[in-house]
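Ticket #4471: complex job returned nothing on first submit. Input attached below:
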Amino acid sequence: MMKHWILISFLLVFFTSLATAETLTEDQLQVRVKEVAKTLRCAVCQSESVWESNAELAIQMRDIIRERLSQGQSPDEIRAYFVSRYGDFILLQPRAFVGMNWLLWGGPFLLLIVGGTFLFRTLRKWVAQTAPSPPEELSPIDERGRRRIEQELRSLESDK
Amino acid sequence: MKEMAETKPPAAGIRGWQIALLAVILGLIILFYKGLWGNPSYIPPVLVGTAAPEITAPDLYQPKEVSLSQFRGKVVVLNFWASWCQECKLEHQNLLAIQKRFAQNPNFVLLGVNYQDKEDLAREYLQEHGNNFEHIRDVKGRISIDYGVYGVPETFVIDQNGMIRHKQIGPIIGETYTFLVERMIEPLLNGTATAS
Amino acid sequence: MIIELGHFAVITALILAVVGIFSPIVGLKRREAVWVEVGKQAVTLNFVLISIGMLAMEYSYLVQDYSVRYVYATSNSKLPLFYKVAGLWGGHEGSLLLWSWILSFFCMLAARIHWKTQPAVMPYLIGMQSTVMTGFLLLILFLSNPFERIFPVPLEGRDLNPLLQDPAMVMHPPFLYLGYVGLSIPFSFAMAALFSGRLGEEWIKATQRWTLMAWLCLTIGILMGGYWAYYELGWGGYWGWDPVENAAFMPWLVATAFLHSVMVQETRKMFKVWNLFLIILAFSLSLIGTFLVRSGILSSVHSFAADPGRGVFILGFLSFMLFLSFGTLIFRSAKLKSQIEMDSVLSREAIFLFNNLFFLVAMVTVFIGTLYPLLTEAMQFKKVSVGPPYYNTVFMPVALGLVFLMGIGPYIPWRKASVQNLKELFLMPGLMALGGLAFFAFAGIRNSYALAGLTVVCFVATAIFSDFAKIASFWAKREQISPIQGFVTAYKKNPRRLSGILTHIGVLVMVIGIIFSTIYQTEKVLIMKPGEETGLGSYRIKLIRLYGAQGGNWEGQEALFNVYKGETLLTQLRPQKRFYTVSQTPTTETAIHQIYTGHIFLTIPEVAPDGSWARVRALHNPLVLWVWYGGGIMGLGVILNIFRKTRMKISAARPETAPEVAVSLPRSAREEVLHHRSNRWQTLLNAVWPGRKEV
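Support reply: We reran it on our side without changes. The output follows.
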């Protein structure tokens, strides 16, 4: 009896998972194909991805991606396949740790950090060099100040 | 960033940032100059020196499957072509000549792969331009993608061990033809080829 | 004959451009104003001559004279009149001619507008502009001549590239060139400032409108290009990070940085060299962009045919310009000192510097991404591609930082912000940002970039609108008027600031458009047979039938689709697959249905020859129009800024500005000018060439 239940529940899980895999297929598969295809260059077009291109080759590559995805391959495995055939050229997103690609990926952030630090330190240095202004000049506008400003403005208006 | 330099007395002359700026400009110009002589649409082949991917494909004329492994032990020249391809017409007579030249050699196979084409158009093309070797159809582009083909004509030379020894992008004409015949195919057939 | 006349006019223009380089130099050397006058006449005549060249070309288009090689290559008798005219800039040679024509127009205009008010700048302005002009005319006449004839004369033209047969694409290059070339005017002023050592705010004030105009045109050009790509290329996106798009985007980024940092110089008299650097960089990037596009060095959809000779020439010219401008900056700046007064790191001037840093990093990101393939190739590495996934990862965080600074920069006080200030200004926006984050996370947005973007948008929007509320209520209270009138008063008091803020609002709208049209996009690519239907988000599309269609210079197929929401028929759409017979080019024509501010977007990239099926690309792009609405608002802000009334603000005399430069001549005194000009010029010439002051 117990055995039956285990078998039945096992089969149930098995078939429902099959069923969900089936229902996921069309729409979800398209989304996943798109994810992969957008990172691959259409080799015969100039700067279009495999997803965007309508070239024959791109359509065939999309079919291969779809086929391999439904066979259970991961996006990285699929990309690796295309790299093994076309070289790194096929990737629209160069691999980060190959050659000097770190420059490409890290460069802007490095520049931001180095530039930011440099800028901040320079600013601090300038602040230190600048004679501090009298404190009342820097304090936020209080009620007294606000009244004064309004008075000034009014006198400006009456000039007309 | 310039301002730091300015706060110092001006007598110090040329400073770091100025040299860096000049270096960047110079580097850029050198880069551009070198780049001018490159071909932006050329993709270096990656498959040369690796095992040729297996092919199983229908013959263009007969209802039979052709596979690459059945030619193991032979030198295979794989030529990707299409009836709509203008440059293929340029090399077609040379392909026929290659086949003629090595036809007696049992260890030589010239195999045409009809790339992204329609069967009837391909046959018409061969009828018009002549044909003396076997052709297979590249169904759904599987073969060409497996071989990293991105335009026709492209030609691969595969040795007796099934290794890709050479890839020719563009038509086999002029020097390319002599190179292919005398420096690639003949040495391979004679067993005098150097592994390079 | 007409074409030879045009050719001859342009050859003469080249000679005059050379005159335009040397006569101001002679004028400066010999201190004779008449030589500068000669330069002015030369640039004026130059405009006339290049106009003749343009008209001669246009004439050949209109009379369908296919003996002119370029006309033959870009036109056809079946082409509609509009595209016949636009054929001139449909290829490399003609678009260069258009570029030079705009350059000559701007140069003439600038020389005439500023002749009286900026006499000291004139020799340099005319000299620099003529230098650029000479470079381009040499390129046109010797390496890309549109006036060339062919023999035997073809009976029919090869037709304009069908992708370019589109209104947006017709206007896109002229606007881009107006932007690129417009930057040359502030660039020349900056060079004049460097040569003459007058680094005050004078040149910035004088070129403010030029820079804004150039920026506006560049923005319009880029947006039009985006819209063109969106519906003409048919993949449903508007920005592909293509090298040519990047080439236009880089000067835009630097010009934007420049527009911000000049405010610091105007208000606080700091960062003079930095501003010079930025404008030189902006114009240099537009030259670099020209080189990248025209030399065919990068593979790109838009690249003109590659020709190494042409590339070498442009590179030579580019190097000359780069060394001339940056070299001058380097050697002159060593002698320049500007007083730095920085009260606090928490001040508007400091934030502006961070804004500049972010803009430059953004530019460098695009620059590295564009040139990296070239770099790897030159260094014998593997060939690589850098595409949208890279920019989405690296550029977006930097852009987000910029958007965030938009909520801080305009509001933090000059000199020094106190803790009290910061609390007043940013507590509310900060809270709203957190609230927004919670809301959008709860609403189910999981994409981290989208969440971060929307949070930042909340922050900035709150900062902007609470500032609006503050100023409106202030004026309402003071003038006893309604808050709306109060806001209008506030606008009148400071149109520059508020139109600038309007541009910021445009950016926010655009950011929202980008985020939503990206993450909520529904896209399907599938094969459909007549009678079949497919779901697209909450819509359904049904292919009714496929049939043949044809136009003047093309034939092809059309598909009829019904678009439903639930059971209601919303609209019928008819995308096409065209084949232009003369140029043998296929294109896909998009069919778009607008739903609120989003689009249902259909194309049929492939149709079976027997019409039994079609490959369909169907998209639903929600809020996609916000991208261009945002662009429109940005443009409006800048237009208001260009046409605002200048406040007659009397600024304190600056030691580095010679007083006579700042004073304009009396308007009526034409005779007086004629009489005193030589003396006046003499004084000026003595002043502007500091090294020879002792004469």
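Chain C touches chain A through 61 residues (CB under 8 Å). Closing as resolved unless it happens again.
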